[in-house]
Design brief:
binds adenosine-5'-triphosphate, binds magnesium ion, 7-stranded mixed sheet, Rossmann fold, about 550 residues, elongated, Ribosomal Protein L25, Chain P, alpha/beta, 12 helices
Length: about 550
């Protein structure tokens, strides 16, 4: 049994749930803790789910317990195997392992059905013939009691007969529901005879075509926790009002009752997280798919180039509490920036190329400069970067009429080419329209590393790529998908806040030679440009495609 989880890179900070678990173990209330992550397989996981995954699997890891992965698959209409597979893949990617504890609520359907019969026999559930609208209309409001259904006092025999016939397929969808018989006047709306089963003549992706009645989430969830011996059933705050119902079912059935605890869900600004809305973005073609690198889905975040460690660090940093709060998406970006600053090898890539010709450098000469892959980590090795007479530099590293304070290239000015020579601009070549299409320079031949004028100070340092050796590549620059901090606030269609500039595709970026065969998924810092990841799907050896994961906060060219 592999209940072992990878060791955390950082010690998880204290939170109220960790305190509860520690106390329960210390007092002997539990000897082993069992948590679960219970997604409904009706979409891809998003960054909010990561909070719940890290919390549940993290508690199990740190307290020597176990965490189950359970698919809460009670609604066959919206669920698909594709989603379930992706969820498993994503939990593993995040670094967690459920061992043999993979469960499906649908595997409990027979037991749940028998328990429903038990509740009917006890007089605690009844079959209601009212329509959905009638039930809604008689539910009452927060200030007014609901009205009891005319079917509420059916005999046990009649209820059992009808429920069995519901299962037998005698009635069409929506003709009847099984309801818990609790209290139509309860101040808690969830206790006003909530539905337990509905008729749905739809096969189930996991259970097959055995069923035409399906349990409601509230009826299935607590009993599933009970069957699995969950000790701490952790959910988001909106389920707090469901807790009395959760406990009512378990107590009426007389079965083991886990404790439910609630925590505040993750809210991220500039982001929508509802699965319905994310699905809509995919279906309407606003993004390229669930794994579009602009999506807050974990498959999207992964494709964007985020490391699992950075997502785990983020989840630890935001903490776990009971107060609703908003997290700035910048915190997530900072986590990946910090992680990649440590891990990503450096490389030079010119995104918007401008030709630079060194007039006093022979056309047939090539030098290779030994260049460290990471400025602080010699253990990451080095590579040889070719240098020749014709290079590419960034268009915005040259200004014919330099703005005040501009430290890079302009006519007459000197600049250091990163890891190579100091060059001085001697002139420009323009096209018919007057645009600069080429910068001409001379070089200081002693200014390379180890040369006599190596230490000569110039104001600016820019990156470059040898034209002859460069690899042309597609580079995708991603920005926030929404331009408003709270696109989901209501009152206005969230789609009206879509950022029209969230994707810029550059088709002719010029990369240094070493990037030609970058493995899909591999990550680099393109010096002065940010962190980039070779796209998992579209990048291929010799034909790299890079996604920008995140920009650099500081650029070494600016002042250092
Ligand atoms: P929907 O978007 O349809 O409301 P959901 O995101 O709640 O669905 P589930 O599959 O029910 O999707 O979620 C699985 C688990 O993830 C639940 O335990 C839920 O509490 C948790 N979860 C979902 N969203 C967040 C969030 N934003 N922050 C923390 N936990 C979350
Ligand atoms: Mg949910």
């Amino acid at each position: 049994m592999s209940e072992q989880q990878p060791a955390a890179e950082t010690t998880a900070p204290a939170n109220f749930l960790r305190t509860i678990v520690a106390d329960d173990l210390a007092s002997g209330k539990h000897t082993t803790i069992v948590t679960r992550f219970p997604p409904e397989p009706n979409g891809y996981l998003h960054i909010g789910h990561a909070k719940s995954i890290c919390l549940n699997f993290g508690l199990a890891r740190d307290f020597g317990g176990r965490c189950h992965l359970r698919f809460d698959d009670t609604n066959p209409a919206k669920e698909e195997i594709e989603y379930a597979e992706s969820i498993k893949d994503t939990v593993r990617w995040l670094g967690f392992d459920w061992g043999e504890h993979l469960y499906y609520a649908s595997d409990y359907f027979e037991q749940l059905y028998l328990w429903a019969e038990q509740l009917i026999s006890q007089g605690d559930a009844y079959v209601d013939d009212q329509t959905a609208e009638e039930m809604r209309a008689t539910r009452g409001t927060l200030t007014e009691a609901g009205t009891e259904s005319p079917y509420r006092n059916r005999s046990v025999e009649e209820n059992l007969d009808l429920f069995r016939r519901m299962r037998g397929g005698e009635f069409p969808d929506g003709a009847k529901v099984l309801r818990a018989r609790i209290d139509m006047a309860s101040p808690n709306m969830n206790l006003r005879d909530p539905a337990m089963y509905r008729i749905l003549h739809t096969p189930h992706p996991h259970a097959g075509d055995k069923w035409c009645i399906y349990p409601m989430y509230d009826y299935a969830h607590g009993q599933s926790d009970s069957i699995e011996g969950i000790t701490h059933s952790i959910c988001t705050l909106e389920f707090e009002d469901h807790k009395p119902l959760y406990e009512w079912f378990l107590d009426k059935l007389g079965i083991y009752r886990p404790r439910q605890y609630e925590f505040a869900r993750l809210n991220l600004n500039y982001t929508v997280m509802s699965k319905r809305k994310l699905l809509q973005l995919v279906q309407d073609g606003d993004v390229a798919g669930w794994d579009d690198p602009r999506m807050p889905t974990l498959v999207g975040i992964r494709r964007r180039g985020y490391t699992p460690e950075s997502v785990r660090t983020f989840c630890e940093r935001i903490g776990v509490g009971r107060n609703d709060n908003w997290i700035d998406v910048g915190v997530l970006e900072e986590c990946v920036r910090n992680d990649l600053n440590e891990k990503a090898p450096r490389a030079m890539a010119v995104l918007r190329p401008l030709k630079l010709v060194i007039e006093d450098y022979p056309g047939d000469r090539v030098e290779e400069f030994e260049t460290a892959n990471h400025p602080q980590k010699p253990e990451m090795g080095s590579r040889r970067v070719p240098f020749s007479r014709e290079l590419y530099i960034e268009q915005d590293d040259f200004m014919e009429e330099p703005a005040k304070g501009f430290k890079r290239l302009s006519p007459g000015a000197e600049v250091r080419l990163r890891n190579a020579y100091i060059v001085q601009c001697t002139g420009v070549v323009k096209d018919a329209a007057g645009n600069v299409i080429e910068v001409r320079c001379s070089h200081d031949p002693g200014s390379h590393t180890g040369g006599p004028t190596a230490d000569r100070k110039v104001k600016g340092v820019i990156h470059w790529v040898s034209a002859r050796h460069a690899v042309q590549a597609e580079v995708r620059l991603y920005d926030r998908l929404f331009s408003d901090p709270n696109p989901d606030r209501g009152g206005q269609d969230y789609k009206s806040f879509l950022n029209p500039a969230s994707l810029e595709v550059i088709s002719d970026a010029q990369l240094e030679r070493s990037l030609a065969d970058a493995a899909p998924g591999s990550r680099f810092q393109f010096e002065r440009q940010g962190y980039f990841c070779a796209d998992e799907k579209d990048s291929a050896p010799g034909r790299p495609v890079f996604n920008r994961t995140v920009t650099l906060r500081d650029s070494w060219g600016a002042g250092k």
